[in-house]
């Protein structure tokens, strides 16, 4: 049973409640069929990387749904397909590139279109793209177009999921997870010590191009979990970017690729044009 996290604005105060949706896994903008738990469980609040923002769908009555997305070119945001396969329209969906979006909920960046992988079936190929109306002039993340890291590798996660102590979470959190299994299209992670939770859907699982941490590389995006509690959960499953590369590049033709080095993907910062707020944690 999928549980949809819905935020409601009443008198300027954000409340969170849950409404039961269908039976298919990962059919809602949140990642898991679970009760509230820590966002990026055992993670820490983070202002790293403004390219990672909240994907917000405004609903009638002042409520909204949230996911996470990553800028991979000046106008394209990578997220999960199930974040775009519901009540989302061009008019009611925005991207907010802020570490905390509570005060800027109504001032997100407008979008001109969105699309999700035609092979998405509720579980596999769970990847989508949002096209911003205007380019966002900050450094995008790089997408992995090569072989993924091996099982046992620890990677980072950024996301905006719900919290156990504060269900009205509107801030970005950073954590680490370890690759526990791989298939041709997915990577599964175990806590190390963090795990993804509701609202982290579409968020990047990433590493860096070198030990010096020059460029963050998205290896996969959060899809779903198989646990009733994020904080003590066993695993989270993600969609590998190299497995859906053709779909991504069909639309985001200027996306930054790991095998490419063209500007603005080379992480050379010119004349202060590129805004980099993050460093390798």
Automatic annotation (TrEMBL):
MF terms in GO: serine-type endopeptidase activity
Residues spanning the signal sequence: 1-26
GO-annotated biological processes: proteolysis
All copies of domain Peptidase S1, residue ranges: 9-253
InterPro entries per UniProt: CLIP_Serine_Protease, Peptidase_S1_PA, Peptidase_S1_PA_chymotrypsin, Peptidase_S1A, Trypsin_dom, TRYPSIN_HIS
Key word RNA-binding present: no
Pfam families listed in its UniProt record: Trypsin
SUPFAM superfamilies linked to this entry: Trypsin-like serine proteases
Alphabetical keyword list: Hydrolase, Protease, Signal
Nuclease as UniProt keyword: no
Name of the protein this chain belongs to: Trypsin-like serine protease
Organism name: Pseudolysobacter antarcticus
Organism classification: Bacteria, Pseudomonadati, Pseudomonadota, Gammaproteobacteria, Lysobacterales
């Amino acid at each position: 049973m999928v549980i949809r996290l819905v935020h409601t604005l009443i008198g300027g105060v954000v409340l969170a409640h849950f409404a039961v949706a269908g039976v298919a896994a990962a059919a809602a903008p949140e990642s898991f069929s679970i009760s509230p738990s820590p966002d990026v469980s055992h993670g820490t609040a983070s202002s790293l990387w403004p390219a990672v923002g909240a994907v917000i769908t405004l609903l009638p009555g002042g409520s909204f749904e949230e996911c996470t997305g990553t800028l991979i070119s000046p106008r394209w945001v990578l997220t999960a397909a199930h974040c775009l396969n519901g009540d989302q329209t061009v008019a009611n969906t925005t991207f907010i590139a802020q570490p905390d979006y509570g005060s800027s909920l109504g001032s997100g960046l407008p979008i001109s279109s969105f699309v999700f992988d035609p092979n998405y079936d509720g579980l596999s190929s769970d990847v989508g793209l949002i096209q911003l109306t205007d380019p966002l002039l900050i450094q995008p993340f790089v997408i992995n177009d090569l072989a993924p890291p091996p099982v046992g590798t620890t990677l980072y996660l950024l996301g905006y999921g719900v919290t156990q102590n504060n269900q009205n979470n509107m801030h970005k959190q950073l954590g680490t997870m370890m690759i526990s299994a791989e298939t041709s299209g997915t990577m599964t992670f175990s806590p190390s010590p963090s795990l993804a939770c509701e609202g982290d859907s579409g968020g990047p699982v990433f590493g860096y191009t070198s030990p010096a941490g020059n460029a963050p590389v998205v290896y996969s995006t959060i899809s779903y979990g198989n646990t009733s509690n994020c904080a003590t959960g066993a695993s989270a499953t993600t969609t590998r970017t190299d497995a859906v590369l053709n779909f991504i590049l069909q639309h985001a033709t200027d996306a930054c690729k790991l095998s490419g080095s063209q500007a603005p993907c080379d992480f050379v910062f010119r004349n202060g044009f590129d805004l980099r707020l993050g460093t390798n944690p």
